[in-house]
Each structure stands twice: as structure tokens, then as C-alpha cells.
Design goal:
- Helix content is about 35%, strand content about 20%.
- The chain is of the alpha+beta class.
- Strands 1-8-3-6 form a four-stranded antiparallel β-sheet. Strands 2-7-4-5 form a four-stranded antiparallel β-sheet, with no helix packed on it.
- The chain starts with 5 loop residues before the first strand and ends in a 24-residue tail after the last helix.
- About 20% of the residues are buried.
- The C terminus is likely disordered.
């Protein structure tokens, strides 16, 4: 696995980001979403999620001269191909992250819509509720301006190998 890790150096106040990449702080100090990250701290574990709507959009910022190790999802796939015993552990991590992020996303959208008066959960049938959850998780949710259904559909895939 270590041969798949790439080292990168960042200067103070530089943005630290690469899509679908796990970062490990090797040296220096970074900040991410109000947290301070130092040697040994990681972020980007959600790289395992193919559902982009459940991945974090936050970018880290280097607060000092920083060195980070990076592992892109494609490199992770190469590792899994070489070490199939790692597949089950990664799949379990993927499921755990997806459940937590999915429940949080549904709760945030539901709360926002109820607060604005655009949705009454009590008025939804079980079928409506399941469709709403699916739309939120697939990033297809958008409030309907016509005053009809509180959600509309428009596209999005998911799942990591």
C-alpha cells in the first residue's frame, strides 16, 4: 500500500484538496471544517463513496508548511485487486460511512423543508417518504415551486466496487 501513497507539500494558506482522495498529515498543520489536523490525522475517508452527494465538499487549508500523504480511490482499487482480503473491511467502512452520511443528509433536508413550511412529513405516505429519501440520497431533490409535490426527480448513480 505504501507504494500507492503520494507525498505532496503545501505552503501556508494553500488549499489542500483532490477529489476522492484520502489525506494523511505527515508533517505540519492543516485546518478542515473548524478542526485542526496535525501529524497522523486523516480526512477524505468518504473517498470510498461513489455517491458524490454523500461525500464532503469541504477543502482543507494548510496553516503551515505541510506535507501530506495522499491515496486516490483508483489506487485503493488497485490495492483491493492485489489484496482481496481487504475488500470486506473496505466495504464495511463504506457501508458505515454511507449510512451515517445518508441519515444526516435526509435529516438536514427534512428539517429545512419543514422549517420553511414546504413539507409536512405527517402528510406523506410511506411510498412518498421512500421516494423522498431516494431523491435526497441521489441528489435529485429540488423543492417544487408549483406547490404540488414537495420534491422532483432529475438523476444520479451510486456504489463503490
Amino acid at each position: 500500500m505504501s507504494r500507492n501513497l503520494k507525498m505532496a507539500a503545501y505552503s501556508p494558506n494553500e488549499e489542500v484538496f483532490s477529489d476522492r482522495t484520502l489525506f494523511i498529515v505527515r508533517r505540519g498543520i492543516c485546518a478542515l471544517a473548524g478542526r485542526i489536523l496535525v501529524s497522523g490525522h486523516t480526512w477524505g475517508e468518504d473517498m470510498l463513496l461513489s455517491n458524490e452527494h454523500l461525500r464532503s465538499k469541504n477543502h482543507a487549508r494548510s496553516l503551515s508548511y505541510s506535507f501530506v500523504l495522499m491515496l486516490h480511490v483508483e489506487d485503493m482499487a488497485d490495492i483491493v485487486a492485489e489484496f482481496p482480503e481487504a475488500r470486506a473491511r473496505l466495504k464495511w467502512a463504506q457501508v458505515q460511512i454511507a449510512i451515517v452520511r445518508g441519515v444526516r443528509k435526509i435529516a438536514e433536508v427534512t428539517k429545512e423543508l419543514q422549517k420553511s413550511g414546504s413539507m409536512s412529513e405527517e402528510a406523506m405516505t410511506d411510498e412518498d417518504r421512500l421516494s423522498f429519501f431516494e431523491d435526497v440520497l441521489r441528489g435529485r431533490f429540488s423543492p417544487d415551486a408549483s406547490g404540488g409535490s414537495p420534491f422532483a426527480v432529475d438523476g444520479g448513480p451510486s456504489d463503490f466496487g
